[in-house]
Specification:
By secondary structure, this protein is α/β, with parallel strands linked by helices. It is built from ten helices and 13 strands. The chain is globular and about 60 Å long.
């Protein structure tokens, strides 16, 4: 913990008094310089220039730049702090581009809103990529995580039959989220179990874990005209370890090959996530959150060094079951 100068808004910037944030695994990867195996995002920390992590943000607008029109001081907002600036959301104040903020629904607490932005944007991009039709049968791998849990709810509300893949300890949560069938990720080959028990051909799969084994399982259970959507890629939990540029380029080459070859052979392969203009989707995230589509919450921790350290270690070890929310003093 350190005291730093309060941020100043740029022309399209908004200074937010942060009341809640959350811990994304990519916050850790970005801080450690291992994002997607080693792609450097944002400024590198220096002894004379501290870098504050934190992407999800929820709070009250304190001040705005002279070109800001969408929000004003006093508004309750939530959104995403992009990792290109030094002062992130794990702080009392954070400067955010107005294009990555939206008004917080009155029905949501700040702690709940803080868990929604990134998970909601990624889940939305995955479900949109599936191009679901009523009656579709899809599989969500990692069905009870922050992204997977929201994807399950969105798909089931769109009329899809959702099969969840997660650990056995989370079966009941998966059913509560909207899965009609659930299979154990750690048990016997789940793809064989799905093929043996599915009531209809599988049209799509959402992968929130990553790994070539999941890609191969997807090929075995998907129709040829189906769609495999991953928010990670061919390396499981990519970013947990530095791959070096040779490793990063190998992963990117694999993704490129799969994107092209799948168009010819099927099932279609798509790597997705929020894009540069992805902040436009926050209004839709707000609407679906107000309607009850929320990420599973693992726990809430106070913004104090000891609890934050423990929470970061749990997140880095993938021991959390859903989002870890960080609450500032006033959010309690």
């Amino acid at each position: 913990m350190a005291d730093v100068a309060e941020p100043v808004p740029g022309r399209r910037g908004v200074v937010v008094k942060v009341l809640a944030s959350s811990i994304n695994i990519d916050d850790i990867h970005g801080a450690e310089g291992t994002f997607y195996g080693g792609i450097r995002f944002g400024p590198r920390p220096r002894p004379h220039r501290l870098v504050t992590p934190g992407s999800d943000v929820a709070g009250i607008v304190k001040s705005v730049g002279d070109r800001v029109r969408s929000v004003q001081p006093g508004d309750a907002v939530f959104g995403v702090h992009l990792p290109f600036h030094a002062q992130g959301a794990w702080a009392e104040y954070c400067a955010v581009d107005e294009r990555w903020l939206t008004l917080k629904p009155e029905s949501l607490s700040f702690c709940t809103a803080a868990a929604c932005a990134i998970s909601g944007l990624v889940a939305l991009s995955a479900i949109h990529a599936l191009n679901l039709k009523g009656g579709s049968h899809i599989v969500v791998v990692g069905a009870t995580g922050g992204i997977g849990g929201m994807a399950v709810q969105l798909a089931s509300r769109a009329g899809a039959h959702v099969i969840g893949v997660c650990s056995a300890a989370n079966f009941e949560r998966a059913r509560q989220l909207g899965c009609s069938q659930v299979f154990d990720y750690h048990g016997s080959a789940w793809d064989r179990s799905i093929n043996a028990n599915a009531s209809a051909p599988i049209n799509g799969l959402v992968d929130t874990v990553g790994g070539r084994d999941i890609e191969e399982a997807g090929r075995r259970i998907l129709r040829r005209d189906g769609t495999f959507v991953t928010v990670v890629g061919p390396e499981r939990f990519i970013g947990d370890h530095p791959l070096g540029w040779p490793g990063v380029l190998t992963v990117l080459a694999r993704v490129g090959y799969r994107l092209i070859s799948s168009r010819l052979r099927g099932p279609r392969y798509i790597l997705t996530g929020p894009t540069i203009g992805g902040g436009k989707g926050l209004a839709e995230v707000a609407q679906m959150a107000a309607a009850g589509v929320l990420p599973p919450i693992d726990s809430t921790v106070p913004f104090e060094l000891g609890p934050m350290r423990h929470a970061l270690r749990r997140a880095a070890a993938h021991q959390n079951h859903g989002r870890i929310v960080v609450k500032m003093g006033e959010a309690a």
